[in-house]
Structure formats: structure tokens, C-alpha cells
């Protein structure tokens, strides 16, 4: 990916070099590759091939994890269920877990972009639809990043290195391999939105800002910081007068979405706010009630310096190491950019001061999707500012190998596994027996099962799962005793099966009889008192 002759860094569409009124007709007059060249040259074809390979590989891998009980109801199964209930008209984005005071996913997160997938799921009502959507969204972000990087960097090899670093980033792979999340669209949206800003494409930029904000109410915090960084750069380079109205509209969108999200979440949730279980232990004595707000948290720590210091120093080594590892793939230099710092600050403030789960400050699970795209935008901007070049193919090859080594090392050390993807195991007898048990249950019958089995039945609107006995008990206190037609227990997973059996207690064996059982799989049926039948001889009554 060679250097473009005749083009130096001063000629690029650098944010500080061209004063353009974003409300004028000057959009797209910067040094942007023509559409034909952007799609047709061999370098872009390589990137598109890489995106396609990542899509296919990740879809196959996610499908394999789904079939081997490694995608859980707590995340993946919940999403399948909320789409299924919406399509079948049995609820609007209905939660699959039994949780008091909460009926819809919008009671937890204001994720409007999820609605865009409802028509697709209506056509293909299978969990694989979401796995394909997750894979496609993240694979697409690789190509969009290439377009954004190439539009700003004078050296195609440097743009290629940015893409390689992103495509091999272990935190991206870790988030990629955990099922489905609405945050999967954030990287492509952020890269595309920044690309639109570089092109001075007013409507595309505002549309991108709106879509990012509507993806998840938490994303508005990082987006607001990112926009503040862009505005600061515009101010320093005497462009704030020409771009001021653009930023005013953007911040208005962010504030409006944040306000609306609060109203909507309160409508669908009797007790909105951040649950105490998600907060650091030192906050428990000073926060009243089961939930609280960010405003309350900020006021509490600001008025209590001792508490602020205690929260900051709690697990400080883990927080520092988490930040250290997430910055390695972007060579640390991304943190020199104002937009990256602006986006990263809200995430770190919450993760370092308020979070009770290490995943926030160690960037585990799907949380990297909130920050990775802003890190790579920052990397592009810093490389442009420093006029970085890679003068030869040999050096590009060496740099690519270095990125691969760094990524593998971070994945193994920081994420405790090859790229943090988790366990891989072969399907076996357990799969067949669970499938037999599921096929025994009529599709319109109500069914309750455990967390790791639930994704296999999550497309059924009448299926739910028990994640925590205490949470299940609180739900029953509010809504009455839960009496499903069937209860499916898989004792292969002692951790999850125990939570399910504890939830129903001595009702298993009294109100519910053992209907079919084989090995570690037991299917209980309400009111059944006949002989226990084996699963292996079962004739499917209503296959999924």
C-alpha cells in the first residue's frame, strides 16, 4: 500500500487547513478519493476481501458457539426473545428474564436502532439472523475505517496499517465473539460519521450523529465527548465561527436524545436508573434505594472527597492495566488526540469511579465497542498530524507482523485467552438430548429453562429463563407465581441448573412431575404424574 506521489500532508483535508462553512455547498471539495477509485482499486479490493473473510469466519464461529451452549440467555437469548415477541405481537421488545418492574428492553436501554432489524427478523425468524447481523456490522466497519483513514492520510500504507490494527484488535474480537449487541453498529457509524465530517457532508454528519445517539443512551456520553473534542479543535484553528451552528445542532441532538431516553426508560421501568449491583461497593452506604442516577452519583462523590479518593484507588492497578492494554494496539498515540480524550473521558469516569464490575475498566465483553471506534479516529488524526509514512513494502510487512504479535499478546495476557474469545468445545450427546427435549415441548406451550440453554428456545415468545433465584422471587412477588407448562433443566451446567432449580424449589416433584429424562437432562411437566420417558425415544411433537 504505497505512498501517493504528488500529495503531501499539507494538501490533505486536515481539520485545521480549510475554513469551510458547513452550511454552504462546499462539501466534498477536499482530497477525497473518487468513488470509482475508492471501490475499484486493488487496495480497496483487499480490504473488502478482508471484511468478507471476517464476516464469514465470525458468523461460522458464532454459530458454533450458539450450538455448543456458549452464548447465554442473559445477553444473546434476551435479544432473540425481544425481537420474537415484537414480531409476534406478544410484547414490545419484551425481556426474557424474570425481572421485577421491567417488561421491555427499553426499560433498561433506549436502543432505537434495534427497530431497524425487526423487519429482517420478521422475514428470517431464527437466532442466526442476529449472529449474521452482528458479523456484518463489524465486518463492514473495517471497510468504512479504510475509507475514513485513506481520505485523511497521505500514505496508503499507513491507512492500511490502521485497518490491520483495527481488524486484529483483540478487544474487537472479544466483543465480536459474545453474541449480539446493538453496540455492534457503533464502529461503522462512528467511522462513517467522521468521514462525513471530513467531507463536509452536513446532512450525512448529522444523520450519523443522530444514529450513534439513538443506538444506546450510554453512547450519547462518548458521542458528546467526541463532539466536544472536534469543537475544541475547530476553536483552536479559528473555524468555530463557520462550524458553530453545526456543533450547536449536534449537541442539541445529543441532549434531546438523552432527555427522551430518560423519559422512555422511566415509562418502561418502574425503578429506572443504575442498579446498585453495578456500582462499586463503597457507594452502597451512601446511596439510598435499589437504583440511582449519574447526576446523583456525581453530586455524591464531588461533595465527599474521601469517597472520591477511595473509589479512584479501588483496584487501581487493574484500572491502569486495563487502560494500558487497550491503548497498546493504537500505539498509545491515539490518546494524544482531543476527540479520543473527549470520548474516552466519560467511559473512564464511570468505569474508574462508579463501576462495580471490572468489565467496565478492563474493557471486557462488549464494552470496547463504545470506545474502540473513537480510539481509531484519534489514531488517524494523530498519524496525519505527525505526517507518518511507511516508505517501503518491507517495512509495511514488518509493521503488520508487529501488530499481529501485539494483538495476540494483548489478547492472551489481558483477556485470558486467544483474543479473549473464550471456550471452544465440540458438540456432543448433550446437544442431541437437549434438542430432543425441546422438540417435545409444543411451540405454543410456556417453557422456562436456564441461562445457557435458553438461547436454543429464545425464538419462542412463550419461553423464559431464570438467571438468579432472588431476582425470580422478586418478580413473583410483583406479578404472582410463575407456572409454566414445562421446565427444562440441564444438569451438565451445575452453575446455571442450580439457579433454575432453586428458583422453583420444592415445586419440582410436587406441582411438576418428571416427564422425560435422560442423562443430565430433565424435562418437568406441570401436573404430570406418569412414568418418566427417555428422551432418545422421543418423537418430536413440534420442532422449532
From TrEMBL:
Keywords: Membrane, Plasmid, Transmembrane, Transmembrane helix. InterPro entries: STSV1_Orf64 (IPR018650). The keyword Magnesium does not apply. It comes from the Archaea. The keyword Transmembrane helix applies. The chain crosses the membrane at residues 46-64, 105-124, 161-181, 201-234, 246-268, 311-334, 341-361, 367-383, 395-415. This is DUF2079 domain-containing protein. It comes from Salinigranum rubrum.
Amino acid at each position: 500500500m504505497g505512498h501517493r506521489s504528488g500529495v503531501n500532508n499539507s494538501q490533505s483535508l486536515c481539520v485545521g487547513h480549510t475554513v469551510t462553512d458547513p452550511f454552504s455547498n462546499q462539501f466534498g471539495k477536499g482530497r477525497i478519493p473518487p468513488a470509482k477509485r475508492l471501490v475499484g482499486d486493488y487496495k480497496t479490493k483487499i480490504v473488502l476481501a478482508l471484511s468478507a473473510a471476517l464476516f464469514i469466519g465470525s458468523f461460522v464461529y458464532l454459530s458454533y458457539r450458539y450450538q455448543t451452549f456458549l452464548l447465554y440467555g442473559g445477553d444473546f437469548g434476551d435479544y432473540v426473545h425481544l425481537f420474537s415477541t415484537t414480531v409476534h405481537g406478544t410484547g414490545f421488545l419484551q425481556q426474557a428474564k424474570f425481572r421485577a418492574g421491567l417488561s421491555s428492553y427499553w426499560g433498561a436501554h433506549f436502543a432505537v436502532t434495534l427497530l431497524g432489524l425487526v423487519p429482517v427478523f420478521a422475514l428470517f425468524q431464527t437466532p442466526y439472523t442476529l449472529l449474521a447481523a452482528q458479523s456484518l456490522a463489524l465486518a463492514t466497519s473495517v471497510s468504512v475505517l479504510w475509507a475514513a483513514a485513506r481520505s485523511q492520510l497521505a500514505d496508503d500504507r499507513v491507512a492500511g496499517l490502521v485497518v490491520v490494527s483495527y481488524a486484529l484488535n483483540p478487544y474487537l474480537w472479544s466483543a465480536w465473539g459474545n453474541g449480539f449487541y446493538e453496540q455492534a453498529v457503533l464502529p461503522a457509524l462512528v467511522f462513517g460519521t467522521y468521514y462525513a465530517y471530513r467531507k463536509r457532508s452536513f446532512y450525512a454528519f448529522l444523520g450519523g450523529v443522530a444514529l450513534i445517539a439513538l443506538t444506546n443512551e450510554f453512547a450519547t456520553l462518548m458521542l458528546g465527548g467526541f463532539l466536544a473534542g472536534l469543537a475544541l479543535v475547530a476553536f483552536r484553528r479559528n473555524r468555530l465561527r463557520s462550524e458553530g451552528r453545526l456543533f450547536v445542532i449536534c449537541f442539541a441532538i445529543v441532549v434531546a436524545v438523552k432527555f427522551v431516553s430518560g423519559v422512555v426508560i422511566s415509562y418502561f421501568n418502574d425503578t429506572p436508573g443504575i442498579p446498585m449491583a453495578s456500582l462499586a461497593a463503597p457507594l452502597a452506604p451512601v446511596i439510598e434505594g435499589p437504583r440511582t442516577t449519574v447526576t446523583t452519583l456525581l453530586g455524591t462523590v464531588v461533595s465527599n472527597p474521601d469517597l472520591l479518593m477511595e473509589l479512584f484507588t479501588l483496584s487501581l492497578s487493574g484500572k491502569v492495566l486495563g487502560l494500558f492494554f487497550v491503548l497498546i494496539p493504537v500505539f498509545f498515540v491515539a490518546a494524544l488526540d482531543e476527540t479520543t480524550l473527549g470520548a474516552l473521558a466519560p467511559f473512564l469516569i464511570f468505569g474508574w469511579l462508579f463501576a462495580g464490575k471490572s468489565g467496565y475498566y478492563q474493557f471486557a465483553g462488549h464494552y470496547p465497542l463504545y470506545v474502540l471506534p473513537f480510539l481509531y479516529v484519534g489514531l488517524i488524526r494523530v498519524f496525519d498530524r505527525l505526517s507518518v509514512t511507511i516508505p517501503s513494502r518491507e517495512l509495511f510487512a514488518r509493521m503488520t507482523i508487529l501488530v499481529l504479535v501485539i494483538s495476540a499478546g494483548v489478547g492472551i495476557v489481558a483477556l485470558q485467552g486467544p483474543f479473549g474469545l473464550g471456550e471452544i468445545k465440540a458438540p456432543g450427546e448433550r446437544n442431541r438430548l437437549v434438542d430432543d427435549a425441546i422438540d417435545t415441548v409444543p411451540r405454543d406451550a410456556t417453557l422456562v429453562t436456564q441461562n445457557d440453554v435458553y438461547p436454543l428456545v429464545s425464538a419462542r415468545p412463550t419461553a423464559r429463563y431464570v438467571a438468579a433465584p432472588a431476582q425470580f422471587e422478586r418478580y413473583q412477588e410483583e406479578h404472582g407465581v410463575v407456572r409454566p407448562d414445562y421446565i427444562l433443566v440441564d444438569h451438565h451446567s451445575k452453575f446455571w441448573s442450580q439457579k433454575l432449580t432453586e428458583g422453583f424449589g420444592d415445586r419440582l416433584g410436587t406441582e411438576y412431575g418428571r416427564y422425560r429424562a435422560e442423562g443430565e437432562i430433565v424435562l418437568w411437566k406441570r401436573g404430570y404424574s406418569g412414568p418418566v420417558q427417555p428422551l432418545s425415544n422421543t418423537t418430536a411433537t413440534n420442532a422449532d
